[in-house]
Every structure is written in structure tokens, then in C-alpha cells.
């Protein structure tokens, strides 16, 4: 008998943030967020329809306005008609500097896919490319999704996973049904990028195994995303999604037991010594989607999970780089709903956050399930739906990417697919909600955040 490999190269690629400042102690969490900036720009991103309403595949446009104008409901902006077209074949993966003065972009798919560029924000549709352009496609392919580091806008990190199913060939020609499944090898690639000098800092590929029992049962990491630094700056956390193969048939399994939420922990900056930690509080995925999924606050990292049969939780990883299972924060319980699913979220420096979510009973709109916003307190483990924001079935937040943080204020966009909406400003300390500038939409398109 001999071992053979069933190779699957459907690589899951994501460019993600190492969130919140490296090398700071956890005593002053305010160091990890931008301070209130009187001259701050607020940049809004608009995703144009491609084939279907809400798919965002027609390209991305951005438009910036002063924070005073962003708070003024008498102001209206038309990013789809007057915005700056961000180089990207489909929905761009955008980030902004901590003070909002610079936009960073990696083109997604197409001839320019994987190209990194940055732009100085001058207001309106005036974005001026600065610095050197570099392609990261040799490391992460032409369709990377990415989020920058919060280390003074210096660094980004890309991660991907490739998998190979290992089986024992029992010698029957042309008959795979006699083969014995052994395990699935998950190889995670990590690359760090200097955002200022446009150069690759480090690239490593590492094997990330699960427990022998989990692997024998067919589980493996099928997607990784959202790297985050711990408070000490010496460990990198990478969120992950598990999939499962049926060991008997070698087909992809479905309806299987969802395991405890897992995170890959690496030494940083060497990107070595992988370990896997598992939550006893939440189950499901920790890789998020298009928005940052984990944030360092007050010495610990707080991480959302998705696909949890008991609804999304915010999980806590302590300074010892292990899950703190004494911290139990169920969004279902806090909001009094079932089947909550955190789509995107962002805390301010005070530990209070805005969460975009859906839940069981969300109406089906033209693009998918209806979304909502809630104000969350990480310390009190409470959540309150933000009722001052209007909701309707076509308010679609699955592709939501960014929140602009200015001190304790969080800026967000609200507009149903194909309909006008507004910028809203949430004072996370007082809970006050300010209706701001009007967002003029076009048929089939939607807004994906503020930076």
C-alpha cells in the first residue's frame, strides 16, 4: 500500500489586519485607536451592481467629505455619479489611515488584481495616488481581500490556506472506494507588507494540524482570515473556518458537528511556531468575511464568531494567548433574538462598539437577509439595537466593510440596495445617534461602509 494525496488548490485568500498597535501595554487602551481629529476626512465607499442587485461586482467608487459635512443632513453626495473609481475588477478591499487622510487599496481580480496602491484624500472625488505601486499577486494571487495593520499605518498581513487530502491507496486500480482516508494537510501562507515603502517584509508557509482525533474524523482548516496582534505584539492570531470530509466516501461532508471556535496562534514577527487554540464558549468560524473580525482592547483580543448554532458570540483571548472561557458574551442573549450572525463590527477606544448583524426572522430582501446595527459594550456584555436608524428588508449588510472611528464616535452608512440613505454618527459613550449627510444611490447598488 502507498500513501497518495488528493490535492485541492482552491486557495482561500484574505488580506487582513494586524489590529491595534504593536508593542503597547494593555493598560491604556486609548492608544489603540485614533484620537478625535477636528480636520478628519470621512470616506464613503459605494459598490456598483454587476449582474444582480447587491452583488457589488460592478466596481467600487469612493467619495470623501469633512466630518462636519458628514454630520449635516442638509448635505447630499452622489458617489456613484461623482466618486473616484477605485482600481478593482469587482468590489475593492479598502482601508484608511488612522486619521482618515490616506486610503489604501488592493485591486481585486482582473488584469490589475493584487496591485497595492495608496491615495491621499483631498475631499470629494479628489484622491491622488502616492508612493510606489506593488503587486502582491505572486504571494496571494490576483483576488486578495485585505485589511491593514493598526501599527501606525505601517504594515499589512495576507493569509491563505491550501489543502491536500491524504489517503492510503489500497492498490485497487481505478477504484478509490477502497482507499483509506488519513487526514487533510492544511498549509497556511502568511505574508507581511510594508504599506509605506511598498515592499514585502516576510513570507512563510506553515502546516497547521488539528488534533489527531479531529483530523481522523475529517476536519481541516478550509479558510483563514483576519490576523490580529496580541497586546504584547509578539503573537499573531489568525481566525479560521473548519470544513469536513467524509472519511468513508472522501466527499465533502455536510450536516456535521460544529466544533468549538478555533484560532491559529503564531510567533510574531517570525510567523513561526503555529498552535491552535479552541473556545469552549462559542462554536463555528472566526475568519469573518470582509470586515475586521478581531480587535485588541485593554490587553486582550475580542473576536466575533460566525455560523454558531447558538448565535454569534464575542469571544475573548487573554494575555496568555488562550481563550478566556470565563468571558461569555452571547449576542442572542444580549439582544433577545435567535440565530444572530455578526456581519461586521468595530469598537471605539472606550470598549463600546457598533455591530452589524442579522438574525433568525430577518426578512429576505432583494440581495439577501435584512441587516441591523447594535451598540455593544464589551465590558458590560450588553447590546442594544440602534432603533434611530431606519430598517427595511433591502437593507443588506453582508458585504459591509468599514466603520470610521473618530474618538468615541463611529460613522456608518445606511442605505437599502438601490435606495437613498444617510451617514449616521454613533456617540458610543452617550448612545446619541446623529443623522448625517444623505447618500444618493442608483438602482441595484449599495454602500459598503465609511473610513
Automatic annotation (TrEMBL):
Species of the source: Nonlabens spongiae
Keywords per UniProt: Signal
Signal sequence bounds: 1-16
Alphabetical list of PROSITE patterns matching this protein: PROKAR_LIPOPROTEIN
Source domain of life: Bacteria
Protein name: DUF4374 domain-containing protein
